[in-house]
Design goal:
Number of helices: 9
CATH class: Alpha Beta
Number of strands: 7
Bound molecules: coenzyme A
Order of helices and strands: EHEHEHEHEHEHHHEH
Number of domains: 1
Helix content: 40-55%
Radius of gyration: 18 Å
Largest sheet: 7 strands, parallel
CATH superfamily: NAD(P)-binding Rossmann-like Domain
Length: about 270
């Protein structure tokens, strides 16, 4: 599936999209999808080398690109990055809050700092990004897409920190839909499932866990970064003009109650 087969390549022409954590993985997939439909793209992240290789990919798709080394926990760095974006690409039409941190850790072994680091990156970082971009989004009557996670919807083992952070992200998303709707700003979340080739998969489903996990996904496969990118473009596009406060699962059905072990137990009992 490639997005340009279905959507006009000038859908986001002359519009700028700011993606936090856009140097790699799902967030780079989102940045690529917007570049494919004509957007200019600003990406920020902590690692300059990742940003530079992402820049090349995005420029090859025809986008003008701004990169900023900025940790979403650092409000001032984000403010500078969004100002630079406005100066070089024009005001932000779409903000993608994608920067996240995670690791598997049973709660009884998790330190306060470990819990707080994830909440700071995912939740406080999303707030910082929205707050810093607010004036520009107001000017463009733009939209925000949060990258949430299944941990927001249902509890996962060894994921108390990510669950708390992402549930907070989804609630922030709904609050902004409520408060900023009056400015024409829409706010929605994507809940990705396991997406192949990403840092998240390497951290959360390494090796054998990943292979077994496939059987717990109703569609029986991992997703792709392009599939998350398409969902983000849809949510930010005029196709979703009346969609705000929504959570869109792009997870192959993984977070449906009844998927996974429960389904397996029932099917085994019936066979
Ligand atoms: N298990 C338990 N605790 C862990 C951990 C793990 N695998 N990895 C980090 N921590 C703890 C650290 O021990 C530290 O706590 P302490 O001071 O009590 O020892 C705390 O988390 C902060 O770690 P640190 O490495 O200093 O933080 P950081 O800000 O450099 O990194 C993380 C943030 C921990 C979220 C790191 O995993 C990260 O940078 N992730 C970004 C990429 C990513 O996770 N992508 C996938 C998203 S799905």
């Amino acid at each position: 599936m490639s997005i340009e087969q279905y959507l006009p390549q000038d859908l986001f022409k002359n519009k700028s999209v700011f993606v936090t954590g856009g140097g790699s993985g799902i967030n780079l997939g989102i940045a690529r999808a917007f570049a494919t439909v004509g957007a200019n793209v600003a990406i920020c992240g902590r690692t300059e080398s990742k940003l530079e290789s992402a820049r090349k990919e995005l420029e090859d798709l025809g986008a003008e690109v701004v990169t900023s080394v900025a940790d979403v926990r650092d409000y001032k760095a984000l403010e500078d990055a969004v100002e630079r974006t406005k100066r070089d690409l024009g005001p932000i039409h779409v903000l993608v809050c994608g920067a996240a941190g995670n690791f598997l850790c049973p709660t009884e072994q998790l330190s306060t700092n470990g819990f707080q680091s994830v909440v700071d990156i995912d939740l406080v970082g999303s707030f910082n990004s929205c707050r810093a971009a607010f004036e520009q989004l107001k000017e463009t009557r733009g939209s925000i897409v949060f990258v949430s996670a299944g941990q927001s919807l249902i509890p996962y083992m060894a994921q108390a920190h990510a669950g708390a952070a992402k549930a907070g992200v989804d609630n922030l998303m709904r609050n902004l839909a409520l408060e900023w709707g009056a400015y024409g700003i829409r706010s929605n979340s994507i809940v990705p499932g396991p997406i192949e080739g990403t840092e998240g998969m390497r951290r959360l489903a390494p090796g054998e866990i990943g292979e077994k996990l496939k059987h717990a996904i109703p569609l029986r496969r991992f997703g792709t970064t392009d599939e998350i990118g398409s969902a983000a473009v849809f949510l930010a596009s005029p196709l979703a003009a009346y969609v705000t406060g929504a959570t869109l699962s792009v997870d192959g059905g993984m977070n449906l109650p009844g998927s996974g072990l429960f389904g397996q137990i029932v099917m085994e009992a019936m066979s």
